[in-house]
From TrEMBL:
NCBIfam families: PRK00278.2-4. The keyword Phosphoprotein does not apply. The gene is trpC. It comes from the Bacteria. SUPFAM superfamilies: Ribulose-phoshate binding barrel. Pathway: Amino-acid biosynthesis; L-tryptophan biosynthesis; L-tryptophan from chorismate: step 4/5. Belongs to the TrpC family. It comes from Desulfoluna spongiiphila. This is Indole-3-glycerol phosphate synthase. Its EC number is 4.1.1.48. The lineage of its organism: Bacteria, Pseudomonadati, Thermodesulfobacteriota, Desulfobacteria, Desulfobacterales. GO terms for biological process: L-tryptophan biosynthetic process.
Length: 263
């Protein structure tokens, strides 16, 4: 890690420490392990020819404030109406202006499976994720040691959370390979510089085992971007900013979900 990514991770570790002081690990674990209804995440993606994980996103370090007054529940309902396969909710507070309350409100408003998008650096956050009712959780390979990644994937499974493991380059793919994650997100955006290369996911997907459900994330703005990824064999997409900024997110989602691979 370097630069701004390290700054975010350092901040998140501090937030986790404060959270532990408010609700103990033992108490959070008890809540996380309570019975709950889980919505299958990967299955929802595989059920659609074009599967969009639509994101509830208020802000980002690279784009600044996007929609601070965003209503998570209303946004989630629009995404479901537009045909999204699943929902992603950013819960990091300082840099992305999100919260677990956004996740809870969004999931309550819809029937789609919900991913918690966060910088997961501590087991406590996985218990927190399950306790909040999420169905899946993002694990970023770049910020985790291999042993942590394996432990977090195992704990997520125990908590009935599907793990979307995010990679950025060949080194990340080598790191995650021993754990054979069934769900892999390839980030088109460099988390160090926040530069975006829309062709990255298509190139890197060739290094992943057959049968992996690949999700292209970041930089997807229009139908041509969707079609480009379809030609590379990727049919699942995580999209935030373009949908949040869209005047008609329902119509935009519907148009994307009807894109055909012309290759």
């Amino acid at each position: 890690m370097s630069g701004f990514l390290e700054t975010i991770v350092t901040h998140v570790k501090g937030v986790v420490a404060q959270s532990k002081a408010t609700v103990s690990m033992a108490d959070m674990r008890r809540t996380a392990e309570a019975p709950r209804v889980v919505r299958p995440f990967r299955k929802a993606l595989e059920a659609k020819p074009v599967a969009v994980i639509a994101e509830v996103k208020r802000a980002s370090p690279s784009k600044g404030d996007i929609a601070l007054d965003l209503d998570a529940a209303k946004t989630a309902r629009r995404y479901e109406e537009g045909g999204a396969a699943a929902l992603s909710v950013l819960t990091e507070g300082k840099f992305f202006k999100g919260s677990l309350e956004d996740l809870k409100a969004a999931r309550k408003a819809i029937t789609l499976p919900v991913l918690r998008k966060e910088f997961i650096v501590d087991p406590y956050q996985l218990y927190e994720t399950a306790a909040a009712g999420a169905d899946a959780v993002l694990l970023i390979a770049r910020i985790l040691e291999p042993s942590q990644l394996g432990d977090f994937m195992a704990l997520a499974s125990e908590l009935r959370l599907e793990a979307l493991v995010e990679v950025f380059d060949e080194a990340d793919i080598k790191k995650v390979a021993p754990f054979a994650p069934p769900l892999v997100g390839i980030n088109n955006r460099n988390l160090k510089s926040f530069d975006t290369d829309i062709t990255r996911a298509g190139r890197l997907s060739e290094y992943l085992p057959s049968g992996t459900t690949v999700v292209a994330a970041s930089g997807i703005k229009d139908t041509e971007d969707i079609r480009r990824h379809l030609k590379a064999g990727i049919s699942s997409f995580l999209v935030g900013e373009s949908l949040v900024r869209a005047e008609d997110s329902v119509g935009l989602l519907r148009s994307w979900c009807n894109v055909k691979d012309e290759g």
